[in-house]
């Protein structure tokens, strides 16, 4: 192969390489800009979300609870295990509320009326927030309920509990007091 052909080959190959390199960089930029935020993991700051309580009051998580240890529990009324676990959370809340522990539950799916009946039956005192489209639950990586996050006083996720289970919420919260 003569030197002239070799130079032309390098020029053409170089141009193609530059084209494909630029195309690859462009695709990486476009794809990375359109990605949804990942669900919060342990050690991440919990994402800011605005929801409404059953009474209509707007609540911003975690901003409205800054300086408190916050338990955020995602639930639906169709799960019978919620009766036991929410009662357990309520007892822990009674004991630790004055020490800076706050609890909110996020009712996913179903209607406001169904949530109100469930809360009245259990006599829950802590805020029950509504996520009727389950949009916030999905953004937080919640695809089955119950699921619970425990946040420290700065709004950082310190524990993520997925699914049902007999849990000692007092022991979990006491570690952060």
Structural description of this entry:
It is a single chain. The chain is an alpha/beta fold and 177 residues long. The protein has two domains: 1-35; 49-174, Glutaredoxin. It contains five helices and seven strands; from the N terminus they run H-E-E-E-H-E-H-E-H-E-E-H. A seven-stranded mixed β-sheet has the order 2-1-5-4-3-6-7. Strand 3 (69-75), helix 2 and strand 4 (101-108) form a beta-alpha-beta unit. It is globular. The model has no long low-confidence stretch (mean pLDDT 79).
CATH architecture of the largest domain: 3-Layer(aba) Sandwich
Number of domains: 2
**Cα-based radius of gyration, to the nearest Å:** 25 Å
Q: Could you tell me the strand content as a percent range?
A: 15-25%
Helical fraction equals 25-40%
Based on the model shown, name its key terms:
177 residues, alpha/beta, Glutaredoxin, 2 domains, seven-stranded mixed beta sheet, 5 helices, 7 strands, globular
At a glance:
The chain has 177 residues and is α/β, with parallel strands linked by helices.
Secondary structure layout:
Elements: H1 3-33, E1 49-53, E2 58-61, E3 69-75, H2 81-96, E4 101-108, H3 112-122, E5 128-131, H4 135-139, E6 147-151, E7 157-162, H5 169-174
Parallel strand pairs: 3-4, 4-5
Antiparallel strand pairs: 1-2, 1-5, 3-6, 6-7
């Amino acid at each position: 192969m003569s030197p002239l052909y070799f130079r032309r080959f390098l020029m053409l190959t170089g141009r193609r390489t530059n084209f494909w390199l630029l195309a690859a960089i462009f695709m990486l930029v476009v794809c990375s800009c359109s990605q949804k935020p990942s669900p919060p993991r342990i050690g991440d700051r919990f994402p800011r979300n605005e929801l409404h309580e059953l009474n209509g009051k707007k609540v911003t998580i975690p901003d409205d609870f800054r300086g408190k240890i916050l338990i955020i529990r995602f639930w639906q009324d169709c799960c019978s295990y919620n009766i036991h676990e929410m009662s357990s959370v309520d007892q822990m809340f009674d004991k630790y509320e004055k020490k800076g522990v706050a609890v909110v539950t996020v009712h996913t799916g179903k209607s406001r009326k169904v949530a109100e009946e469930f809360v009245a039956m259990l006599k829950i005192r802590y805020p029950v927030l509504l996520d009727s489209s389950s949009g916030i639950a999905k953004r937080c990586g919640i695809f089955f309920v119950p699921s619970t996050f425990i946040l420290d006083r700065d709004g950082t996720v310190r524990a993520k509990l997925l699914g049902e289970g007999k849990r000692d919420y007092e022991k979990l919260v006491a570690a952060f007091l």
